Amino acid sequence: MYKLFSAFIGVLITIMILLNGVLSQKLGNYSSTFIIHLLGLTLMSFIVIAKKNKISFNKNIPIYLYSGGILGVFTILFNNISFNLLGASLTLALGLLGQSICSLVIDHYGVLGMRISKFKKEKLIGLIIIASGIVIMTIY
Questions:
Q1: Structure pTM?
Q2: Could you write out the DSSP letters of every residue in the chain?
Q3: Does the pLDDT value for residue 104 go beyond 90?
Q4: Based on the domain organization, do 97 and 36 belong to the same domain?
Q5: Quick one: 65 and 131 in the same domain?
């Protein structure tokens, strides 16, 4: 079931980049990024209120672990900029390459307490295939 959810994330990201990119073309990068996050905050506020969840901050958790939202803002902003210059396919393909490389580094070194999964040469084949696909997409 979780593998299905993970595949569905890819569908959602593709649709999100398309919608956000078109909105960015119409309103500009910064205005669209603000509106996207304002709508996300509004939706999450309704969900938290409806579920009667309490939002709490644990002082024992390092402050940098709360920074995902900041990274989300830059993710949306850079996606919008890239979408307008590169289109949806190349933006997604380059994003996938970046995610793959970063996740391999995280797994190899066990960043932030992740289970260590050492890099194997065989994984390089996958990166080469992804990079080759991006080169072909760029040329054609």
A1: 0.83
A2: -HHHHHHHHHHHHHHHHHHHHHHHHHH-HHHHHHHHHHHHHHHHHHHHHHHTPPP---TTS-GGGGTHHHHHHHHHHHHHHHHHHH-HHHHHHHHHHHHHHHHHHHHHHTGGGPPP----HHHHHHHHHHHHHHHHHHH-
A3: yes
A4: no
A5: no
